[in-house]
Specification:
The chain is an alpha/beta fold. About 50% of the residues lie in helices and about 15% in strands. The chain is built from 10 helices and 6 strands; from the N terminus they run βαβαβαβαβαβααααα.
Amino acid sequence: MTDEVVRRPARVVVADDQTVVREGIVMLLGLLSGIEVVGAAADGDEAVRLVAELAPDVVLMDLRMPRCDGVEATRRIRAEHPGTQVVVLTTFADDASLFPALRAGARGYLTKDAGGDEIVRAVESVLSGDAGLSPSIQRRLLERLSEPEPPPQSGPAEPPDGLTARETEVLLLIAEGLTNQEIARALHVSTATVKTHINNLFAKTGLKDRAQAVRYAYGKGLVRPPAG
């Protein structure tokens, strides 16, 4: 008789706003050993609620979702439910998607062309305390680390598109993954004031959501990915 320990399946919540994609991921995971899907969410708010109710081991998190995107949902989950790890599963592998998600606390990052075995490895990695990154994401991180630092600017950059200094400050905090409440605390203003600044900067830049705001901040050179 052996003393082999039988490990229980990892309890997983899937968060993706596209019904066909979400149901496909759930179906795929149902065929894999070592994973038990305990819930599925259509947006970040629902993902946070399911984590509070079900206490899963891992959330497979899409990034571009309505109401509450994946970055903000990841921040809330890691702050409120540190026993649950987050693995991003998204179409996007650009810096403007990758680095805010990692800053928010995601321990894994896969693109949606990942196979079942790769998803299982990522889940097992984050549960053992390691990072669950796809090979392409690992290469991107290494490439970013090997890039030379840009020369220091001689002075502060002019805010783009007529943004005020305060609107630019709010934009930078959004790019760091802060919620409206966290931005309000950081700037010592009310959440209503933060919402007003966000509405103004969205109107000036033509942005529609926080994910676009993050991409805009990186695209305008207002934010750089961390060097390490």
